[in-house]
Amino acid sequence: MLLYAAATGMNFVLQPVAGGRIPLLPYFPALVLTGLYAGAGPAVALLVAAVLSVVVFWVEPAGVLWPMAQPSDLIIPVLFLIAGGMVAGVASWARRLLRQDRDNRQRLNMALTAGRMAAWEWHIGTGAMQFSEGAEALFGMTWRHVDEAWPLGHPDDVERVRGVIEQALREGRDYRFTSRMIRADTRELRWIETTGYVHRDAHGRAVRVSGVTADVTERQRALEASQAAEARLQLALESGKVTAWECDAERRYIWIHNTRLGLKPADVVGRRLGDVIPNEAHRQAIDRVYAGGEPQQFQIEGEFRGQPYHLLCSVRAEKDAAGRVTRVIGASVDVTELAAAQAQLRRESQRKDAFLATLAHELRNPMAPIRYAVAMLGENTPAAVREQARAIIGRQAAHMSRLLDDLLDMSRITRNAIELQRELLDLRGVIGQAVDGVRPAYAELGHRLVVSSPPQPVWVDGDSTRLQQVLGNLLDNAAKYTPPGGEVTVRLDLQGAEALLSVSDNGLGIEPRDQAQVFELFSQVRPPGHGGTGLGIGLAVVRQLVELHGGRIELHSAGAGRGSCFTVRLPLAPRQEEPAEPAPAAKVVSLFPRGPAALIVDDNRDAADSLAVLLRANGFTASTVYDGAAALQAFDALRPQVLLLDLGLPDISGLEVARTIRRRPAGAAVTLVAITGWGQDKDRQQTREAGFDQHLVKPVDPAQLLALLRPLRPPTGTADAG
């Protein structure tokens, strides 16, 4: 209405001057303004009011409500209505467009603000920049020229960002980068992501860049936190040797992390469960998960590409609303090393138990003849018997001393307390001294000992006593595991800068599966039917002593019954006398027939002989043999009433001797007494099953033994010194 009144008032001023020729002209600006600011309805109302005003006031006769006398008088009002309507329509449409533009800008600014983004435009020629409304909230300030932006960039990122923009402008392409920015107001470090759209002229030159910059600090922090969490997860999985995986409903791997056993994720993803590493136990457990949907925990073990594995697995299923399994996730912990360590601990525990039992056995063995010898030393004992008893005690004490020496040597070696008394020495002399030490034992067993060495000296830097101990131990071992009448060869050779000292025999040999453990502490390889002696530390001591000399020891054996060869390699000294000749002796078996018969079988001659003297002194006829075959022959020849039998014989086990005797016609009447160093419950069970009547543990109390045998003695026995 105000615009209508203004236009009408202006018309009253203008028309007298214009002679009434342009009465419609003032209403056109009013129509435009009304259409722009008030809309189509008010503009149409203004248009109608303007037509009526012109007809009444400026069409002759003036002041008449409808002065149109001729149809031609209607042309101007009609044209004004048409033109005014078009002006009002255009103005209204423009008003709508302006409102839409304003609303769009509002929404854009709201979106930019909510997304912590700012829109901008950069005129490359002038460097001028324009920003959207939210820019100051994002940057802490706005700027008019592009050069004002660089001080806000992080010093480590500015050159990189410049390079990206300059290259994009040269090539006329859009660009995007992520960088760090320092807010102008708070000096807070923020991460921003900028996208620039390059506008080019007709010649392809970049003239303007419009773009958007977003604050992505929270996203970047979340990304860094996610990367850190993933790194921690990976570290935890790798440290715990855990493989995590996921399979779909078709049992195909869709994800796996921290693969092991030489596999890569690409070797697994896409393949079905069980196709990569076939394992029946694993397949059955997974079948249960897919069938019932219940979680499973289980262990699996096997071998893949020659590598053993032992895994602890935990698996659970994810189901849909219908209860169908849609995916399965699992984790497998590699406990292969732990399982191996536990197995090793079990072996070492078993070896320790065996060692303690062996130690008890080996200490009881020499104690038995010592106790028998002490019992022989009565007031009226003949001088010969007394001398025999003293000899027995001396020999058995020396044997116990050797056992203790082995224990002490192993203790010193494990504590790194052995000090070698090194000197320049000829290995041929070491061989001669070691052979002299074992000659009596070899003569007793009837072994042939062959020594081969070069004519020239073989010089090494070593401890003569310890090297004699090494060779003596190997020779004792060869004698012990070679049947009577066997052959043992000692050979000394030169090979490059090394001396090769080997001890080979044609004895019982060692199975390939047992060869790796013979040098381990408390380890003994006992062939069937062979009792054996020792604590299982001799070869461990040998290896340690050889290594202290800078050498190494090797074992070669083709298997059971095919002999063994131990080779010691020692470094030669800068310069390099002659071996003693061995003298083989025949095995002696002594039988002493007389009175109520007792047969004593023990490979420890002192134990057998001293026990025989003790029994003879108490009215028995005592005979002795020293191996299982001789025991069977002597039993058939003597038909003894009592058989005192050791279990660990060099050829046939005492258990087998007892079984064989019980199967013979005369075997049912004989009293079988086991006299052994083995005293555990399982040992007593074995002797009962083999047919023994009694089980006595060495060293046997003579009074206990005589009390046991008293029912077999004649009423008035005559002492016999033998």
Descriptive report:
This protein is an alpha+beta fold and 722 residues long. 44% of the residues lie in helices and 21% in strands. It contains 20 helices and 22 strands. A five-stranded antiparallel beta sheet has the order 2-1-5-4-3, with helices on both faces. α18 links the parallel β20 and β21. The protein is rod-shaped, with a radius of gyration of 56 Å. The protein starts with a helix and ends in a 13-residue tail after the last helix.
Give a quick account of the main beta sheet: strands, pairing sense, barrel closure. 5 strands, antiparallel
- Indicate the structural class: alpha+beta
With helices defined by DSSP (H or I, 4 residues minimum), what is the helix count? 20
Low-confidence stretches: 576-594, 715-722
What would the average pLDDT be, to the nearest integer? 82
The amount of beta strand, in percent, is: 15-25%
Helix content: 40-55%
Roughly how many Å apart are the termini?
Answer: 158 Å
Which descriptor suits the 3D outline? rod-shaped
* Number of beta strands: 22
**Numbering strands along the chain, what is their spatial order in the largest sheet?**
2-1-5-4-3
| C-alpha Rg (nearest Å) | 56 Å
